[in-house]
Automatic annotation (TrEMBL):
<dbReference type="InterPro" id="IPR005025">
    <property type="entry name" value="FMN_Rdtase-like_dom"/>
</dbReference>
<protein>
    <submittedName>
        <fullName>ACP phosphodiesterase</fullName>
    </submittedName>
</protein>
<feature type="domain" description="NADPH-dependent FMN reductase-like">
    <location>
        <begin position="4"/>
        <end position="146"/>
    </location>
</feature>
<dbReference type="Pfam" id="PF03358">
    <property type="entry name" value="FMN_red"/>
</dbReference>
<dbReference type="InterPro" id="IPR029039">
    <property type="entry name" value="Flavoprotein-like_sf"/>
</dbReference>
<dbReference type="InterPro" id="IPR050712">
    <property type="entry name" value="NAD(P)H-dep_reductase"/>
</dbReference>
Amino acid sequence: ATYKIGYFVGSLSSTSINRLLAKALVRLAPPELELIEIPIRDLPLYSQDYDADYPPVARAFKQAIADVDGLLFVTPEFNRSIPGGLKNAIDWASRPWGQNSFARKPSGVIGASPGAIGTAVAQQSLRGVLCFCNSPLMNTIEAYIQFKPGLITEDGQVTDDSTAEFLRNYMKELHAFIVRVLTVLPRNG
Ligand code: FNR
């Protein structure tokens, strides 16, 4: 079977290293996974005022999440947490009350930073948010990517063999996790 994975890039930067990481993960994913980006850029700032009537952009965003089997968060760390744009997107998806898009939707988190701890603190924060949002989370493996210039090319080729192998294995484990979760929690069950 083929599984659809919707991925979010937590950065809006035109030179984002996390976008490069996402491109690499698309390349390294096993053939059973189809990776589809779910863009967060066009969402306005969330307010509870919208709950009565979500704008089309937010409805499309929630539909994109509904259409996939699992989620992958590829995010930078901003001030030891996740970027506001990504948190905003999560807040949109979690509402209106009773229509939380993350419920039973399995997810994985990964991120890259030039710093040595490679987004570890942001990922901990993100895990707390996703846990509250009732998304079954892949616990192991964890992936904290320290990005050195040239590690991933513009078209998503990983130039370091051990990193490429590690990321390939990450996507293999994500696939196995999605299969396990969907066995107990079928999509429409
Ligand atoms: C950063 N950066 C950063 N890095 C880190 O490892 N921990 C952190 O807490 C922060 N905080 C932070 C805040 C803000 C506002 C910015 C702009 C940057 C550096 C960050 O890792 C670096 O800019 C990456 O290149 C961001 O990822 P993208 O946007 O290139 O994918």
